[in-house]
């Protein structure tokens, strides 16, 4: 076994100072301290301020400060971890939380915390401008703030307010409760996206609609959700409720409710957080279809690819499973009327 190196103590540094004042050589001091003469020479050269004499207490502080820096592991120092984080951040636009949660599933030998990734993005990695790959792209980290707004009456005739929605839907303990909204482009264009999200599994459905009329929205929403209604077992349908806002495109909610056999609930005006699930997913979609961009630029195949990307991206709230994985577990609990096993539907 090789000789193990031991740090000099404050007492030894005081003796070095005293012996050096007596004009002893490094070799003589090393013999007295039972140390290698190179250790003494290195100590005398490194742990004193430039141009000043060697002082034991100052040398001790310099050594301790250097030791703390050496023992601090640099963020993303592991090459495998760094490459994984970079690939998912740049290529997949995953959030730091999503990366930190999924890395142990895909690479069990690796681990990293989301805070370490954030510190790297806004610290040593700031020169690479990695913040632009985050959902909001803020140049500096921001604190969350909230505000309260008084409730107002709904403008939709015969609307059932969200207060009457079931507790299972509110607590996300039961699958089948959907939220829907429109993602609009420039005001000069009529085309928009109908985005519908299942609350528990976060499974997302994206459909292009040619105009924002209530008839069009009702037709597209009914068509996409009717596909899921094929999944049923006795009196437990997969689609159990729909929640929406007070936009004019939802005026024909009675037709949707009758066609699907479910209730449609409405948020209070200016309470967009009451359907926060779909708002969040629209925020993610905006990363691929920026605000002010017309939906006409995107083909059905591109939108279908985007829908698939959202549903195959792991999420922290799902224990880093993908929405598609969780949704399939939920829907395959029930018997399929025409097929033995269900596979996720695609855009039509």
How are the secondary structure elements laid out?
Elements: H1 10-21, H2 26-33, H3 37-46, H4 56-71, H5 79-91, H6 96-106, H7 114-121, E1 160-161, H8 167-171, E2 177-184, E3 192-198, E4 204-209, H9 214-229, E5 232-233, E6 236-237, E7 241-244, H10 253-260, E8 263-266, H11 276-285, H12 300-311, H13 323-331
Parallel strand pairs: 1-8, 2-7, 7-8
Antiparallel strand pairs: 2-3, 3-4, 5-6
Helix pairs in contact: 1-4, 2-3, 5-6, 6-7, 9-10
Question: Rounded to an integer, what's the Rg over CA atoms?
Answer: 31 Å
| Tally of DSSP β-strands | 8
Number of helices: 13
Strand order of the largest sheet: 1-8-7-2-3-4
Give the name of the CATH architecture of the largest domain: 2-Layer Sandwich
> What percentage of the residues does DSSP assign to strands (E)?
5-15%
CATH homologous superfamily identity of the largest domain? Ribonuclease H-like superfamily/Ribonuclease H
User: Into which percent range does the helicity of residues fall?
Assistant: 25-40%
- Given the helix and strand composition, which structural class is it? alpha/beta
Give the integer mean of the pLDDT values: 83
- Straight-line distance between termini: 71 Å
Seen as an oligomer or otherwise, the chain set is: single chain
| Pattern of helices and strands | HHHHHHHEHEEEHEEEHEHHH
Which CATH class of the largest domain? Alpha Beta
**Overall number of domains:** 3
Q: Looking at the structure, what is the overall shape?
A: elongated
Largest sheet: 6 strands, mixed
According to CATH, the fold-level topology of the largest domain is: Nucleotidyltransferase, domain 5
């Amino acid at each position: 076994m090789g000789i193990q190196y031991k740090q000099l103590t404050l007492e030894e540094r005081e003796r070095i100072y005293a012996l050096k004042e007596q004009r002893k050589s490094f070799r003589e001091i090393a013999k007295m301290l039972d140390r290698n003469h190179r250790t003494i020479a290195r100590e005398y050269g490194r742990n004193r301020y430039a141009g000043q004499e060697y002082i034991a207490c100052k040398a001790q502080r310099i050594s301790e400060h250097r030791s703390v820096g050496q023992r601090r592991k640099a963020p993303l120092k592991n090459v495998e971890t760094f490459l994984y984080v970079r690939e998912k951040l740049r290529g997949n636009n995953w959030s730091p939380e999503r990366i930190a949660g999924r890395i142990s599933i895909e690479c069990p030998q690796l681990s990293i915390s989301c805070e370490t990734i954030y510190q790297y993005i806004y610290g040593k990695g700031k020169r690479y401008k990695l913040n632009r790959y985050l959902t909001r792209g803020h140049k500096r980290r921001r604190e969350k703030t909230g505000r309260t707004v008084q409730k107002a009456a709904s403008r939709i005739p015969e609307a059932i307010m969200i207060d009457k929605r079931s507790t299972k839907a509110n607590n996300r303990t039961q699958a089948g409760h959907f939220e829907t909204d429109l993602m609009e482009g420039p005001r000069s264009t009529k085309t928009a996206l109908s985005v519908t999200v299942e609350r528990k599994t976060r499974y997302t459905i994206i459909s292009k609609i040619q105009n924002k009329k209530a008839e069009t929205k009702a037709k597209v929403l009914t068509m996409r959700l009717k596909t899921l209604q094929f999944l049923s077992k006795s009196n437990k349908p997969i689609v159990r409720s729909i929640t929406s806002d007070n936009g004019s495109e939802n005026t024909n909610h009675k037709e949707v409710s009758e066609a699907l056999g479910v209730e449609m609930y409405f948020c209070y005006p200016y309470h967009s957080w009451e359907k926060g699930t779909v708002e969040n997913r629209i925020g993610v979609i905006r990363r691929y279809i920026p605000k002010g961009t017309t939906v006409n630029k995107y083909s059905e195949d591109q939108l279908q690819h985007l829908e698939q990307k959202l549903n195959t991206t792991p999420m922290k709230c799902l224990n880093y499973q993908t929405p598609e994985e969780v949704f399939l577990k939920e829907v395959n609990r029930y018997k399929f009327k025409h097929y033995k096993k269900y596979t996720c539907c695609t855009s039509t």
